[in-house]
Each structure stands twice: as C-alpha cells, then as structure tokens.
Fold this protein.
Amino acid sequence: MTIKEAFFFLKNKFEKNEQISEAIISLAMQEILEIKNHGNLILKFDKKISHSSLEEIIDILNEVNSGKPIQYVLGHASFLGREFYVDSNVLIPRPETEELVDLIIKKYAKNKKPLTFVDVGTGSGVIAISLAKNLKHARVIAIDDDEKTLQVAVHNTSMLDANVEFYLGDLLNPLMKNDIKVDVIVANLPYIEKEEDVDPVVINNEPKHAYLIKPGYILYEKLFQQVKKVMQDELDIYLEIHHNQKEIMHKLCLDNLNATTIEIKKDMSGHDRFVFIHLCK
C-alpha cells in the first residue's frame, strides 16, 4: 500500500467520525512516518507504507476519535514554526495567540535596545520562548501561578534552547518582590466566563483554570492595578481578550491606567481580540 492509498483508506475508515478530519489524518501520518509537513507528505504519496506504521496511525486516530485532542496524543503542538511539548497541564496554543506574538515580534524585530519583556500566565511557554528566540536583544521573563504548568514551560525552554527566566507566582507579584522593572508586558490570561462558550473537546481535556474565570476581565483588572509598580519610564502592554470584552477592557484601561494609547485590534476572523496599550509615568 502506498502512502496515498493509506491516506484515502483512513479517510474512508473514519468518514463518519466528526473528530477525524483530513488535517488530523495528515498530522497522524506525519508523526509516524516522520515527515515534516503536509506538503512533504503529498510529495511522498507514491512511497510504500508498512502495515505496522499504518496500525500506529490508526491507534492515534482512535485516541482522537475517543475525544482526546491530537496535540495531547502526539505530545506536541506547533506554534510559529516550532514544536512545543504539551500535555494536559497546559492549554494547546491557539492561532489567535500566534497572531498576537507575530505582531509583537515584527514590531520589535529591528530594535537593538535591550528591552525586558514579561509573559504573564505563560502556560506552555510558547509566547515567552517565541519572543526569546526571535528577539535576540531582549530579556524575557515568564510567570505562572501553577507549578506543573511552569514545569512544562521550563521543559520547552530547555528543548528549544531559549533564554527565558521563570518565576512561580501570581500575575506581577514576582517582579514586585524582586524589584524587576520591565518595558513590555504580554498576557493571555483566562477570560472565558461560560463553559457553553467552549468546545466540548476543550472542556473535557484542557485545564479549566487556564481559560475559565468569572468575571472574565478580573485578572486583567488586577494586572492593571500592578503595572505601574514594575514599569520603566514607558511601558507597552499586549493582551489577548474575549471578543465581547472590548468595552469593558477600554473602561478598565481608562479607570486604572494613565494610558497614552489604547488600541483594540481584530484577529484574522474579524473578532476584537487584541489590546495594545502604551503608557508613561
């Protein structure tokens, strides 16, 4: 059997299973056949596939079909071209977060000044590590309040040879405790209030404390109340928010920050998703 024949055999085998898309089949095949991406998989469609490899791919697809995210089954997820280890202690990184980090990297790519960035609520570390790998002049700090989560981020930092400093603690408290000042704050904190707004696969697998909270803006309000204690003369803040939080976030900025600039930008799906803030002392 060729890889192409195997692909269409699997597509037919799992056609009634909503969890198994062509993209999922492709990812499973790439994993077992050690092929880098879908394009390369297609280029090797005429190659033979062993029965044992096909059985391994079916095992992966059966796990996904049982309701487990493909990223947890494989043990890794892609983010801005790098593979990060993920398990049930951390959220699977989302495309919207990739958008945010890509925007930040592009803004500071030509900056030679040694700025200090902090990633608040780092999770698997994808934000902090991506900043450290792409902004060579930056000092990057990552904070999380969950020890098991932080262990995943530390593992990814070691695996990807990134220079990131880690602190266990709540929001900006570790910075205040250690008298560390920063130039840029990046945060993708829990902001979803209702379970019904979340895909059942996420509810059943990913850590709820990493995305569910009431009210949805509360952690950002607490963050805003701390930022002046850790900022240099100027500070840039980049946030990911729920698409229905535009008005409340704007109000929180006005109430808590003497901001020079407040911008709320849409993601590629057209949702209000990112908040960019600049403030001076």
Q: What stands out?
A: The radius of gyration is 21 Å. The mean pLDDT is 95.
